[in-house]
Amino acid sequence: MDEELTADLWSELGAAVERNLLDERRRPAEGLPSSFRVDALASATIALAALAIAELWSRRTEKPARAVRVDRRLAAAAFRCERLLKPQGWILPDRFDPIIGDYAAKDGWIRLHTNYRHHRDAAIRVLGVAPERTAVTEAVRRWDAVELESAIVAAGGCAAALRTREEWRRHPQGAAVAAEPLVAWEGRFDSRIPRISPQAPLAGIRVLDLTRVIAGPVGSRYLAAHGAEVLRIDPPRLEEMTGLLPETTLGKRCAALDLGEAAGRQSFERLVCGADVLMHGYRPGALEALGYSDERLRSLNPALAIVCHDAYGWTGPWARRRGFDSLVQMSSGIAHPKSHGVPTPLPAQALDHGTGYLLAAAACRALTEGRARSRLSLARTARLLADLGESPSACPELGDAAELFERNQTAWGPVLQVRCAAAIDGFEPRWAFPAGPTGQHEARWQ
Fold first, then answer.
1. Hey, how many other C-beta atoms are within 10 angstroms of the C-beta on 187?
2. 177, 171 Cβ separation under 8 angstroms
3. Per-residue pLDDT for 11 more than 90?
4. CA distance 335 to 36
5. Strand pairing of 277-280 and 305-310?
6. What is the DSSP string of 169-207?
7. Exposed (0-12), middle (13-18) or buried (19+): which is 170, by Cβ within 10 Å?
8. Which of 343, 254, 324, 255 is CA-nearest to residue 97?
């Protein structure tokens, strides 16, 4: 099934895969126990990213495409990499705020996402209680789940009521997402990627990374592992989940720019002029509000491939809604237990990781084919997962085999972390920069 899914997804990206170029190690499914085919999603999306990189490398060198190998067990581990990270001799900061989680409402369940201070403050203002879990639990019980969801979202926070898959299909946003393609392509440009013989598939390709949390950073990190120069830009003093950074900044340089100041805008525009890919996770209209519409970016760099993603899709009433993987799982019915009981999330942030590898694939296909803009969403990836049907059998938990890990250095100390998933014949993925805090480098191309 994994090979068929990969071929189907590859065709959605506008190409046909030659079966002899894809070799999936046929181990039994392992590591992602779920009623959904998370294992297939992991293998297929990672294979897709590797195939797109191999295709672009072939185009650049004018040589036949090299074969791609995918180990299903390693793919499963890659989807859980931030959970499997093992600091050596130091302690990783907690990735979660004490208030974040699922709560029983008067008529169902709701998830509050409070990892960012302003999202937590919005939820607390609506509930009118102290930021303490017991008080929040008692307050949520007095609300209907959907009413509380709406109130928190209106206050600038993030929350999602638990829905069934059927309820999501009937919901206006669920219907809008169902009508969207997995990857929406818009416009064309003349690709300027030189046809050279690089030592790495993506050597010389510059990626301006405006993404945060997991999905976008996973995609840009995968490009960095294959030789791309990735420069991550964050606003100064913006809160970030430090516990994720040892994974999500690996292989990148990280700078800070204030786009509200003239100097920051000038630096940003110089970076845009020198980039091949701009990857961002802004909601519809957010980047435009900063003065950087597609038209403005294209005027700065006519050969720029813009690759973007959001949470709830690009059409429909929730297109501008803030969201995260766990919230989309609740909204779309993925987390619904099918019977009475607590919500049942996936065994990984699979919507994040799956979308991340799809972003990497879309970026490479955009450069290969001269596609000006590609749009993806966590909600559309959730639809893809749901459409795969139920898993035929329960798979065991992932073991702790040493072969899954490699030792790397970070700014905080050494770690054991999951190896880069998938391999292209003749190339060993490698990281040019150790993981570190945001804003530590100069905002310039090397």
1. 13
2. no
3. no
4. 10
5. parallel
6. HHSHHHHHHHTS-SSEEEEE----------SSTTTT-EE
7. exposed
8. 324
Q: What's the angle, vertex CA 257, arms to CA 87 and CA 293, rounded to 5?
A: 115
DSSP calls for 71-104: EHHHHHHHTTHHHH-EESSS-PPPSS-TT-EEEE
Q: How far is CA 78 from CA 70, 247, 252, 280, 424, in A?
A: 11, 11, 18, 22, 16
Contact predicate 373/385, CB 8 Å: no
The identity of residue 239, as a single letter, is E
This prediction's pTM: 0.95
> Six-digit token pair at 29?
């499914």
Amino acid identity, position 80: R
**What percent of the residues of the chain are helix, what percent strand, and what percent coil, each to the nearest 5?**
40, 15, 45
Q: Scanning the structure block, which residue is given the tokens 């416009």?
A: 187
Identity at 23, one-letter amino acid code: D
The answer to whether 348 and 37 have CB atoms below 8 angstroms apart is: no
**Token couple for 189:** 């440009």
403 DSSP 8-state letter: G
**Residue 28, pLDDT above cutoff 70:** no
Can you tell me the distance from the alpha carbon of 379 to that of 377, in angstroms, rounded to the nearest whole number? 5
Q: Write the pLDDT tens digit of every residue in 329-362.
A: 999 999 998 777 899 999 999 999 999 999 999 9
Residue among 332, 421, 359 at smallest CA distance from 80: 421
Q: Per-residue b/e over 226-260, b at no fewer than 16 CB within 10 Å?
A: bbbbbbbbbbeeeebbebbbbbbbbbbbbbbbebe
Distance CA 155, CA 347 (A): 30
- How many whole angstroms from its chain centre is CA 330? 17
DSSP 321-352: ----HHHHHHHHTTT--SSSSS----SS-HHH
3-class SS at 297?
helix
Helices 378-387 + 325-332 axis angle, to 10: 50
Distance from the Cα of residue 214 to its chain's centroid: 5
Query: Token match 């949390």: residue?
Result: 213
CA–CA dist 314, 319 (Å, integer): 5
For residue 419, the 8-state DSSP code is P
| β-bridge pairing 253-256 and 101-104 | unpaired
Query: What are the two backbone dihedrals, phi and then psi, of residue 262, each rounded to the nearest 5 degrees?
Result: -60, -45
What is the tens place of the pLDDT at every residue in 87-102? 999 998 877 889 999 9
Report DSSP state, residue 146: H
Q: In angstroms, rounded to a whole number, what is the distance separating the alpha carbons of residues 81 and 84?
A: 5
Strands (E), 283-437: 305-310, 371-377, 405-409, 414-418, 423-424
